[in-house]
């Protein structure tokens, strides 16, 4: 069975969330999913879904593209829920010109995660080196970290591996242009990578352009098995173990 370590089911990204919840609940190949918050409202929604659906766990956080009018203190109350496994997704995104404000939110949320003994889920859009600089100069995750949808960068990979941090592979690894991602996939240590769909985004080949669903994680597993020259069952076993090691509340 498979764990999708990062996906989004909420009302701001899907017209009919219940349809996708039902699909996951009815899929016997899916063990569990982490439904990732983007702001306080979607974090609340993720907790509500996890409360009534056993396969669902929640992460809570304020995404760098959603920092307007967000109350960081709200994370403390949300984190008390037993199915909240991480703070995220948090990070930096170069498509906006408010990096100074984004950095403040990132630093504050890492500090909250450390205080609450939770790992963090990092969003990094062309900002790997800036985030590592924040880790070294201001605050570093104490209870684990994953760079989700890892943008391939061997220097960053070495830093993350040296610190025992994780990377996660999503649908882009199936694309014909994914040469750097495939290089990373071939060398990352077996104990430091996860798999995700980032549903409803980043549909893998052969479904690009369609709404992505957790069931499509099989294409990511197949590609990783090819690159690492092992079976799909091994990829499932390795990534399930890694996910539960990072997100300890899933055990």
Summarize the structure.
This protein is of the alpha/beta class and 251 residues long. It has helices spanning 17-25, 40-52, 74-79, 99-116, 128-137, 154-162, 179-187, 217-228, 232-246, and strands at residues 2-7, 30-36, 56-60, 84-93, 120-125, 145-147, 166-169, 193-195. Strands 1-2-3-4-5-6-7-8 form an eight-stranded parallel beta sheet.
Rg, alpha carbons: 17 Å
Number of strands: 8
Q: Going across the biggest sheet, name each strand in turn.
A: 1-2-3-4-5-6-7-8
**What's the helix-strand series?**
EHEHEHEHEHEHEHEHH
Largest sheet: 8 strands, parallel
- Sheet-strand content, in percent, reads 15-25%
Unreliable stretches: none
User: So, the CATH homologous superfamily?
Assistant: Metal-dependent hydrolases
State the name of the first-level CATH class: Alpha Beta
Structural class: alpha/beta
Q: How would you describe the overall organization of this protein?
A:
There is one protein chain. 40% of the residues lie in helices and 18% in strands. The chain has helices spanning 17-25, 40-52, 74-79, 99-116, 128-137, 154-162, 179-187, 217-228, 232-246, and strands at residues 2-7, 30-36, 56-60, 84-93, 120-125, 145-147, 166-169, 193-195. It is an alpha/beta fold. The mean pLDDT is 97. The protein is built from 9 helices and 8 strands. The protein is globular. It has one domain (2-250): Metal-dependent hydrolases (TIM Barrel, Alpha-Beta Barrel). An 8-stranded parallel β-sheet has the order 1-2-3-4-5-6-7-8. 45% of the residues are buried.
């Amino acid at each position: 069975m498979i764990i999708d370590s990062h996906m989004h089911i909420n009302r701001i990204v899907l017209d009919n969330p219940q349809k996708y919840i039902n699909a996951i609940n009815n899929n016997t190949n899916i063990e569990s999913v982490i439904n990732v918050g983007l702001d306080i409202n979607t974090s609340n929604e993720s907790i509500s879904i996890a409360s009534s659906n056993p396969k669902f766990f929640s992460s809570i956080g304020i995404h760098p593209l959603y920092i307007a009018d967000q109350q960081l203190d709200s994370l403390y109350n949300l984190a008390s829920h037993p199915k909240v496994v991480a703070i995220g997704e948090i990070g930096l995104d170069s498509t906006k010109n408010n990096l100074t404000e984004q950095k403040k939110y990132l630093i504050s949320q890492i500090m909250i995660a450390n205080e609450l003994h939770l790992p963090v889920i990092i969003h990094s859009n062309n900002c790997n080196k800036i985030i590592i600089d924040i880790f070294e100069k201001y605050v570093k995750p104490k209870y684990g970290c994953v760079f989700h949808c890892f943008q391939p960068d061997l220097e960053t990979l070495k830093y993350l591996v040296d610190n025992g941090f994780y990377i996660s592979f999503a649908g882009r690894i199936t694309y014909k242009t994914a040469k750097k991602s495939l290089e990373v996939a071939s060398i990352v240590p077996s104990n430091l990578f996860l798999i995700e769909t980032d549903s409803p985004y980043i549909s893998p080949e052969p479904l690009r352009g369609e709404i992505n669903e957790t069931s499509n994680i099989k294409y990511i597993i197949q590609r990783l098995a090819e690159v690492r020259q092992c079976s799909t069952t091994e990829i499932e076993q390795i990534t399930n173990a890694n996910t539960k090691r990072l997100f300890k509340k899933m055990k």
